Model the fold of this input.
Amino acid sequence: MSDRVSSQARTLFEKVWDRHVVADYGGGFALMHVDRLIVPDLSSRSLNKLRERGIGLARPELVFGVADHAITTDPDSADPHGLANPFVANLREQAKHFGLTMLEPSEPGHGIMHVIAPELGITLPGLTLCCSDSHSCTNGALGALAWGIGGGELTHILATQTSVQRKPKTMRIRLDGRLPAGTHAKDLILHLIGEIGVAAGNGYAVEYAGSAIGALPMEARFTVCNMSVEFGARFGMIAPDDTTLAYVAGRPYAPGGALWDAAVADWRGLASDPEARFDHDVPVDVTGLTPQVTWGNNPAAVLPVDGHIPDPTHEGNAARRQEMEAALAYMDLTPGRPIQGTPVDWVFIGSCTNSRISDLRAAAAIVKGRKVAQHVHAWVVPGSSGVKQQAEAEGLDAVFRASGFEWRQPGCSMCVGANGDVVPRGQRCVSTSNRNFVGRQGPGSRTHLASPVLAAASACAGAIADPRKFM
Amino acid sequence: MNPLVTLSGPAAPFLIDNVNTDMIAPMYRPAQAGVLRGLAVKREDLAGMLFAGLRYDTQDRELPDFVLNRPAFRNAHFLLGGSNFGCGSSRDTAALMLSAFGIRCVIAPSFGEIFRDNCFNAGMLPLVLAREIVTALAAEAQDGSSFFLDVAGGTLRSPGGRVVALEVPTFRREQLLAGADEIALTLQRKPEIVAYQDRERAAHPWVYLPQRQNC
Done:
């Protein structure tokens, strides 16, 4: 049922959810329509399974194939387009068979799914979007309902263009105040996760609201929504406003002309009604926020960059103390010491969290005229070919190269290491990605999550550094 | 999908909070540090990769202290976990590896949501029980004694005779019991789905125009 007339005030989430219910299964479960489906290279096996069963795609025109996890980012690769890469080659072959759109590494528009789906206008406000990747929530920044699924569910959506989902509760996180100089969306979301914990969003669809969100440019909003799943929220959304519409306008897959006007009129009505009730409200004041960096093995293990590594002997809860001790041992950190000045071996600027043009501009402003410390391997991996091209037009690649950074091809790269871009065992990396789990960037790798400016400053300092001292 | 009607066997206690799917289903064994090689994943390979970062050392030798390497739990059919079990990545290999190992029921105070759905889709039961109960069950599980799950009857029985009522949503319980082919079931609703799309195309036509407009 499209847009039931309802006198009841609804949230953004409820409006988009209600619009996509194909059938109510009772007990909170519903068969949901999926307006856009993205198949990344690592999941191409789902297409093989469907083919083996002799089932076609329900709506191939709503399905996009993306080469991001497995694709090489090596600028000198002999196979830059993954012709011989088993995952990419299979996706390509299946895409051809099923008639879905493959966003080819050799063509403009290629890159990390959660960077290019918004960039190309594949993601639009009010849509549902699924992808076999937990960071699908990134797309919610445009006011879409986007969620991550597993490979089995991916097969189901390919065959039916629907997914059975249980309706979550609603949470509003109101972020007010102004971000201080030197702090970015990444600091905001890391700080939030540190405050509420990695499971606070379990069972909830989160809407980010408040003056601090309203003031964020679109790309920064993607960074915030991207990490919703890091505190357990499968959905993170922001109501479409002027910033959203300005971003979407003119994108390759976005509607144009009269259709654009109709779409805008619809999207303007998606914001939560003023009287809408949320199951949970979380107020956050961002005034006084400092640059954040993680010290442990989940994103809630976070500190202000001028803080000290926590001491587990001060932790009363035995389970948490054990978790802290294990993390400090794995990360090879000493309790009580300042986190700042911890020597680093690698710096990775990239991933669906922080690889957009504004991220690269901010990082380049820090490294300009400086050199990467001699012992540090520093990489910039742009999120898409569009980002890369724009950065090169602005001369950012030259700035990074001159300072000693490697300027690489777009892809997920060292966020997860599925393509072999890994941090060697025992080495320490400041990374702009979203997960600092044990072994996330390669077996035995040690990850510190941070903003692009903190990462850039750390590359130059050769140790975890406060970006405010580099401005 | 194999139905899950009853399940009987040892329960491996692994009461650590925030066990993420990178831990459950790592990309490599510690002895490897390379690139993922191919598409075909055999059942024994899946079983062998489960918790690989914790199960093997860098020479690919089993670490005897890890719970699934202990004699009592090498044939575990249940896993007792901490809160937020299965958080993180959406990779459904986390559920598939557990299932390939033989574990078809994970019991924990809470689950990562994508993992939870992946379990049901893999014919497994992610069972939410209060932390105190999980802790008490873990105490009973230590010697590898058998637990008994009765999905239809809605109970879990511990070796000591404690009976816990299952709270599983009806939709999910029926899914497990039938071992149903969800794709086939949903395809039966094709007319309903197409009618929905027709209505939506009229109401919000831009949703159905994913053709490049401006380039």
Remarks:
- Residues 318-331 of chain A form the longest helix (14 residues).
- Chain A touches chain B through 93 residues (CB under 8 Å).
